[in-house]
Amino acid sequence: xxxxxxxxxxxxxxxxxxxIAKSGAITKRRVKIIHIKGDxxxxxxxxxxxxxxxxxxxxxALLPILQRESEVI
Length: 73
Description:
Elements: H1 2-10, E1 14-20, E2 26-37, E3 40-45, E4 50-55, E5 59-64
Antiparallel strand pairs: 1-2, 1-5, 2-3, 3-4
């Protein structure tokens, strides 16, 4: 998982993340990874509109958001 986070950070990608919160609830977040350090990372969470710190071990899945270009006819 750490390799996927590093790749998304270097590519400046926004990703969908499935995450286990401290309470045990599974949440889906849309984040942009800012910094990875040790067993955690800092990301901008578009759900909360704030910087948040997440534990790498609590990340269940990452899915990059693909942006489609609009066609002009």
